[in-house]
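A further point concerns the way the authors explain their paired sequence and structure data. Nothing conveys this as quickly as seeing an actual entry. An entry of this sort, consisting of the sequence and the corresponding backbone structure tokens, reads as follows:
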Amino acid sequence: MAEFLLELFSEEIPARMQVKAADDLRDLLTKALTDKGLTFTKAEAHSTPRRITVVVDGLPEQQPDTTVEKRGPRVDAPDQAIQGFLKSVNLTSLDKCVKEESPKGTFWFFRENVKGQPTAKVLGGIAEEAINKMVWPKSMRWKAGTRQWVRPLHSMVALFKGEAIAFDFTLGGTEKPVTSGASTEGHRFLSSGKIPVTGFADYKEKLKKAHVLLSRDDRKAIIAEQATALAAKEKLQVKEDEALLEEIVGLVEWPVPLVGTFEKEYLEVPQEVLISTMRGNQKYIALLDDAGKLSNKFIVIANTITEDGGKQVVAGNEKVLRARLSDAKFFWDQDKRQKLESRVPALENITFHQKLGSVKDKITRMQALSAAIADMTKADAKLASRAALLAKADLSSGVVFQFPEVQGIIGRYYALHDKENADVATAISDHYKPIGANDSCPTAPVSICVALADKLDTLVGFFAIDEKPTGSKDPFALRRAALGVIRIILENKLRLPLLPLFEAAYKNYQVKGLKPFKDISAELIQFFTERLKVALKDQGVRFDLIDAVFAAKADDDLLRVVARVNAVQDFIKTDDGVNLLAGYKRAANILRIEEKKDGKAYAGKDVQESLLAEEQEKNLFKALSASGGKIKADLAKEDYKAVMSAMSGLRGAVDDFFTKILVNADEPKLRTNRLSLLANIAGTMNEVADFSKLEG
């Protein structure tokens, strides 16, 4: 068994593209290898800012022998069809073909034993094909070439068993292609010249000596460990930010953490703004004191070692950061001179959507909807309306213009500066939440009202102008908005049926050309149902359980739906649930077959007690009669534990029935009655959920 090493060495690849590109190249290579009959034991993908590397281990030195088979036309087919078949397999006569019979007739077949080629011979073509299939989010052309690639490609390493595999990456135009070889390059500043390599272990070790850490995990660990140590020396702690750390790893091949400082006067600016500019623009790691407050020190990750121990690097970064922080402080000081409420009229000049009006129109609708939701949830309607009025006022501020990512957050600071109610200020910062799966949900009553109003207004508005998500496209983030509504309702255990919320949001729109509410309400319910499936799947709930519950009864009360789903999920995990479900499916299958045969449907209400001849069918009828009424009553009370207890009580009677009773009796009336009894089983259980939707 042998190893294949492939490296693509280029100018700096954007950090966000590196991991996926390496994984894509690995997947393309391994698929192509498998298609060629080449098995392997392990395939790894690595990336740095300047290289994408894949190593495949455990490859055989030769392809296995294979048999190529191709079916031709019928033996009695026209000569033109036969000649076409012969041409396709490079033959001039049928001497090497055989006749074989099949249910569809007798056909000509061609079979050929193909001897496997040496792996080294096919690897070049496989690698070239894999590279040509790679897709980048953004590409460029360079020099005289016409070929697009993420960044100018300088060289390629391709080694099998330590020997170079030659193939070309064609640039097109008049530019010379890049040809693969057996040497790479090290760090841009800390190494020079070509580095010959003989295999992956040699390649990785020589890169390390040339100040390149190939492993992202190694670079990440060094950054985390050294940054923590440097922070501890300053009696500070690193602000945890996994996404930032992942991005920094993609910016350096030899990470060197250094500590920088900025003037304490900038700490007057809200720390979210300072952290945002350090993180977003400069990729600096913020340092916090023991109280969790931002300090005036930060960590910059250099990509080189300098003779002065990084003094010039730090000084340069401090100068750049100082300019950014100076801008932030200027806009912060300027913005505070104006009341937040006075910024609301300027929102008339910001378009929410061409067909749905301005942001000013949106907050007017949000005010009414927030107050309505407050009435439903017993929150303070006046505070909810006030918070909605101010929620987006910071969009016209200088700080948000410079740092859009702090919208809402900075609005809270302005509100507190203006002596607004603390609940109002919190609602301003929280109304965008939850932004993603890892973001927290609002929990304060006023914040909940405004956050729901913002998302519901958006959802109803865009559905009303028929701007729904299609496929993978969701330009207005409506899926995220729906998931946000679902999370807020479920995590805060709110009894808020969706339809009244949709209707309240729809009534606030005063624009023309909207679809009628009755047309969009069903679409919205279906949309939320699909989003609920996604939300519950992340909690380990099966999709079919949600389908089963919704099929039994359309319900827009998310809290009630989830309670029923959880109850059914728990029930079908029990022995009673498993056995009763099996009985249900047996009853449903018999019914389906007999109803198709008879051309009519059977109903549980048609059971005639006087025709129940055997003890087991009498017992089943009694059990269904008793449980049916109890199940309906307990469902109305939302006592799902009692519902499942009543369902469990059916198991024995159902089991006995199928053990002793012949459903398709010779006597027609008896058969009809027993089929109706089966329909009664399904009807009783379907009060809880449509168990026919359950898989397995």
Remarks:
- The mean pLDDT is 93.
